[in-house]
Structures are given as structure tokens and as C-alpha cells.
Design goal:
alpha/beta; seven-stranded parallel β-sheet; five-stranded mixed β-sheet; 12 strands; tRNA_m1G_MTases_N; Ribosomal RNA small subunit methyltransferase E
Length: 242
């Protein structure tokens, strides 16, 4: 049977009692049918991945004891996604796939034509955690609080931001990347696109670079995943042998 893999918040060290997070005891006992003495893999984004055993489990409570480190902690590339919030299912799908693609942080940005004005950050964090558990990441992406697009860029640290632009003839994203290394960011607008004043204000910033994402018009969720894949393939950790 497969060994469950769980994110925990506590420190990981040999012999230390580690409390499972809410819901994990039920998952181990009722979904995975695990019991005391069974193995589980743990990670916390700081101490690598550990082989642990279940010391006790009762209803939704479990205590896990790390036994040995399986993988040391390794930092992933600082690739960020700025995204106009989408409807719930699409937004959760993007967060899941962005986590699998190794994005370091996800920044919901509110735009003039956005269809969603509120973001459930706790729910998105849960989606990211579950995706990280499944894809064997050693950390979780940070889910930033939703901000107005201009306020987010006003506070930006100068990291290059590539903005997908449907119209005109911007250079392809791949053509912008030679010689660049992370930190890098991708900005994807709402389904209705940016307004002209919005686009003008954004692209006047010295760290924002318009790019093309191919000859077809992409849905926002497709553009996010496609753009992140290009960033990882040409400037991220896909260039490093696993």
C-alpha cells in the first residue's frame, strides 16, 4: 500500500512527537485505513522530508514520530504568479496546477473587469497544501492577500513581471527569457482582459514586460498554466536534472 504524505507545521526531528493537523487523523485512519505503527512521510517546508510512524491515532487526532530524513530541504526557484481572481472552480484548479508546477507564490490581483471581488485565501491554501502533498514538493506556495492590481505593483520589489498580452505583437515569452534567472513573475488578467487604461498604466512600469503566449486566445486559467510551464522550462528548475 502507498505511504501517505502529509504537510505538518511542527518542527521535524528524530523522535519528536508531531501532532497531525486537523483533518489528517481522519484521513489517515478512515480514508487510508492506517493505524498505529504504520509509516507516513512528513514535510514542513523547512526540514526536508521525513519517514515517520503513527504513534497514536484516535478519531481526528494523531501523533506522528519522525524516524529518519529521506530528503534534505531544497529551495525551488522564485517564480511567482499574479492572477486576476477567477470563479471558484477555475481558481482552485489554477492554484492546484501552479503548485504542481513549482510556483513560489500566488498573488490574486483585483482588476477592472474581474468577475470575482473576494478570494477565500484559507481555501486556496488548503488546495495548495493538498497539491504539494501529492506532487512531492518540499514546500508550499505562499497565497498572498488579494490586492488591487495597482497597489500590488506599487509595493512590488522590482522582480521582472511578464504580462500576457492578447493583442498587438509582443515578443513571445520564450524570447524574453534567455539570460534571465529567477526571481521572475507572470501576470495574467481576467477573462475580459485588461482595460486599455489599466494596461497602459501597468506596462509603463520598468519591470513589466508584455509577452505573447501563442497565436490563439487562451482562457485565463490556460494562460496561467502555459506561461508558468514556459518559465519553468526555460528559466526555472526544469533545466536542472532531478
Amino acid at each position: 500500500m502507498s505511504v501517505p504524505r502529509l504537510y505538518v507545521e511542527a518542527e521535524l526531528a528524530e523522535g519528536m512527537d508531531v501532532p497531525a493537523l486537523p483533518g489528517q487523523g481522519h484521513y489517515l485512519g478512515q480514508v487510508m485505513r492506517k493505524g498505529e505503527g504504520d509509516s507516513v512521510h512528513l514535510f514542513n517546508g523547512r526540514d526536508g522530508e521525513w519517514l515517520a510512524r503513527i504513534a497514536s491515532i484516535r478519531k481526528d487526532r494523531a501523533v506522528l514520530v519522525p524516524e529518519r530524513c529521506l530528503r534534505p530541504q531544497a529551495a525551488g526557484p522564485d517564480i511567482r504568479l499574479l492572477l486576476a481572481p477567477l470563479k471558484r472552480d477555475a481558481m482552485e484548479w489554477v492554484v492546484e496546477k501552479a503548485t504542481e508546477l513549482g510556483v513560489a507564490s500566488i498573488h490574486p490581483v483585483l482588476t477592472a473587469r474581474g468577475v470575482v471581488g473576494r478570494v477565500n485565501e484559507a481555501r486556496l491554501a488548503t488546495i495548495a497544501r493538498e497539491a504539494a502533498e501529492q506532487c512531492e514538493r518540499l514546500d508550499l506556495p505562499r497565497i498572498a492577500p488579494a490586492q488591487d492590481l495597482h497597489a500590488a505593483l506599487d509595493a512590488w520589489d522590482g522582480t521582472p513581471v511578464f504580462i500576457g498580452q492578447e493583442r498587438g505583437a509582443p515578443p513571445p515569452l520564450a524570447a524574453r527569457l534567455p539570460g534571465r534567472t529567477p526571481p521572475l513573475a507572470l501576470l495574467v488578467g481576467p477573462e475580459g482582459g485588461f482595460t486599455r487604461p489599466e494596461l497602459d498604466a501597468v506596462t509603463r512600469r520598468h519591470f513589466v514586460f508584455p509577452v505573447g503566449l501563442g497565436p490563439r486566445i487562451l482562457r485565463a486559467e490556460t494562460a496561467a498554466v502555459a506561461g508558468l510551464a514556459v518559465l519553468q522550462a526555460l528559466a526555472g528548475d526544469w533545466t536542472v536534472p532531478s
